[in-house]
Amino acid sequence: xEHRDPQCCLGTSPLTPDxxxxxxxxxxxxxxxxxxxxxxxxxxxxxxxxxxxxLASLVGLSQPTVSHHLKKLAEAGLVDRVAxxxxxxxxxxxxxxxxxxxxxDVGL
Amino acid sequence: xEHRDPQCCLGTSPLTPDxxxxxxxxxxxxxxxxxxxxxxxxxxxxxxxxxxxxLASLVGLSQPTVSHHLKKLAEAGLVDRVAxxxxxxxxxxxxxxxxxxxxxDVGL
Lengths: 108, 108
Description:
The structure is a homodimer.
Chain A: H1 17-30, H2 33-44, H3 52-59, H4 63-75, E1 79-84, E2 87-92, H5 94-103
Antiparallel strand pairs in A: 1-2
């Protein structure tokens, strides 16, 4: 999913319909408690590699469920999947979150 | 909806299940293009009072649809409704957006 860096945020000028649709899609991906928990585990661990199995045990979900959520987060550009040896680790994409924080700047 | 100010954000320590459910609910309210457009119009106008009719014409939706979205935003604590004479105007709640921006701070 490509996002142009918004010149505007909620507080400076109205969003165009395209921008609104794009950000609504990103917020929809975040509108899930399990995904937020996963993100917080990945982000709080900083650069420490964590595989699906470890994440699954941390949030108390099955590995297939965690893989599904991680796929959605990766498709939205919120996490990157990095091959490491025979496993895949996940890291957050700081720029994507910076962009969302900027959109939520109501300028007040 | 009550939200305790998070001592943590995504980047400092894992969210509890309750925190994750709370913020997922807020992101669900934001996961709608029309609501984001409405918020951006309300926020970009700063303190200028805008009624439902003016907002409806700005986003090209019917007044009942706009009223429905504004009710959801108000229930989530993202906008306040303020009686002004015979009409109701809407203002964003800066603290609610500051809290969401903080949650989206991945600390990287």
